[in-house]
Specification:
The protein is about 65% helix and about 5% strand. The protein is mainly α. It has a 4-stranded parallel beta sheet, with helices on both faces. The chain is globular, with a radius of gyration of 24 Å. The chain is built from 18 helices and 4 strands. It comes from Laceyella putida.
């Protein structure tokens, strides 16, 4: 018995470590998604095969993908480790590997940015408390300059070529998989990983760099379609809408709209966990969609984020919209048909509620067993609450949905409190109440120790919103 408990704890620790690493990778890319979309739109519009070809404006495409986007990633990675000072050194170090290679250095930026932030952080620790009064600015500026110069040269001479060679080998392996027709098998790993909240890590940490390299050469890439495809999740939700029972049947249409149009894929994960066999349905849906994408030579010009059908349409190249929509439609149909079979052969009752499924989802994510300390909820006086902040990994998906729901409740109750959403690393100092999923609460407390923290199982219609609304209205 003791061995099994220890084994379970080890597995949980490994899972949490993987998730933290995945969140760190995606954290370097997610704040810069707007820049990637801007590059994608310019590419789709102005290259010779674009919607409105323009030779002069097309000159923006190359420098943006070679210089600007990797520098943004490098800066963000350094800033995550050591604030703005780390970000500046991270961008410097990234410039070295950009100039030292011929290919877009996205993976290299993900290495050099955090590494540079860590190096300057350690150097600053060495000088802490040892600088004579009046020389602080001089030492700080020159230490950053010297470290930055060393790292940019190191990136140019040594690290850049190594990363370039590794990237080429990885690209060659992926190219072989594509030519062998085995790419649909990627869904076997991608779809279950999404339910474990590794979707951002897979999409932005692995697939996006590969896709950007391919798009810079071919004008589009199928890798941008592997994870964001909303078809498999839509099939699940449609099946629940038609064949589910009780509260899950009633909630499925709204969830389908949020998922398919809003691009918040996390909303369908609890529906799978109510009937784990449905993971086979999303895998089959994903595989069939990728097969159609390959057969019709589908691809997008840049990463669509969030995974909304609108984002996929916007990132489709000229003449490539039908193949994208065909893959989404087929994956939806396959996922729906298999889900319908599974739901018809197992009764989903009200006892298997979304709330219980959400709790199960948190367990799979490595949730700690601690319950919310109700005393904390009373620490702040109602009159002092001016801002409520919802925080998630990226600050754009599930947290935005939760903030929208609570904002409406506050408006209906005439509560004049600001409600906003952000990435967990960017929680503002003036946040009075911070709402996060249970697995992220510890990180939120470290980021905003003076705020009141509310943990929820999921951001969709949580009863704690009503409790908070009642408390503030009183």
């Amino acid at each position: 018995m003791g061995g099994s408990i220890e084994s379970a704890e080890n597995n949980s620790n490994i899972r949490v470590s993987i998730q933290k690493f995945g969140r760190f990778l995606s954290g370097m890319v997610m704040p810069n998604i707007g820049a990637f979309i801007a590059w994608g739109l310019i590419t789709a519009l102005f290259i010779p095969t674009g919607w409105i070809p323009n030779e002069k404006l097309a000159e923006l495409v190359g420098p943006t993908i070679k210089y600007l986007l990797p520098l943004l990633i490098g800066y963000t990675g350094g800033k995550m480790v050591y604030d703005v000072r780390g970000g500046v050194i991270g961008a410097l170090a990234t410039m070295g590997i950009i100039v030292g290679t011929e290919i877009p250095m996205f993976l290299g930026a993900m290495i050099m940015g955090p590494l540079a932030g860590l190096v300057i952080k350690l150097v600053d620790r060495l000088f802490k408390g040892k600088i004579p009064a009046g020389f602080e600015m001089l030492v700080n500026n020159f230490s950053a300059g010297i470290v930055g110069a060393i790292l940019i040269i190191l990136g140019y001479v040594a690290i850049g070529p190594v990363v370039a060679t590794s990237t080429q080998l990885l690209a060659s392996g992926v190219e072989w998989i594509v030519h062998a027709g085995l790419l649909p098998l990627a869904s076997i790993f991608i779809e279950p990983a999404k339910v474990l909240f590794l979707n951002n890590a897979i999409n932005h940490g692995v697939l996006s760099p590969l896709g950007l390299k391919e798009a810079s050469e071919a004008g589009k890439s199928i890798f941008f379609l592997l994870e964001p495809n909303p078809g498999p999740g839509l099939g699940i939700l449609l099946a629940y809408w038609l064949f589910g029972k009780g509260s899950v049947k009633q909630s499925a249409p709204g969830a389908a709209i949020i998922h398919f149009l809003g691009g918040i894929h996390e909303i369908y994960f609890p529906y799978i966990l109510m009937n784990p066999r449905l993971i086979l349905a999303v895998i089959a849906g994903g595989m069939s969609g990728v097969f159609i994408f390959q057969m019709l030579n589908a691809g997008l010009v840049a990463v669509p984020s969030p995974g909304s059908i609108f984002a996929l349409i916007a990132m489709a190249p000229k003449g490539g919209l039908f193949s994208v929509l065909a893959g989404v439609a087929v994956s939806t149909a396959v996922s729906f048909l298999l889900s319908a079979v599974f739901l018809k052969t197992k009764s989903v009752t009200d006892e298997e509620s979304l709330e219980k499924a959400a709790e199960k989802m948190q367990d799979m994510k490595g949730k700690k067993s601690a319950v919310v300390d109700q005393a904390i909820l009373q620490q702040k006086e109602t009159a002092s609450v001016k801002k409520v902040v919802f925080a998630c990994d990226a600050g754009m998906g599930s947290s935005a949905m939760g903030a929208s729901i609570l904002r409406k409740k506050f408006k209906d109750a005439n509560i004049a409190v600001e409600v906003t959403n952000t990435a967990i690393n960017d929680i503002p100092e003036d946040a009075d109440i911070v709402v996060t999923q249970k697995t992220l609460t510890d990180r939120a407390k470290a980021k905003a120790p003076h705020a009141e923290h509310i943990s929820v199982d999921n951001f969709l219609n949580n009863p704690k919103y009503d409790e908070l609304t009642k408390r503030l209205s009183e």
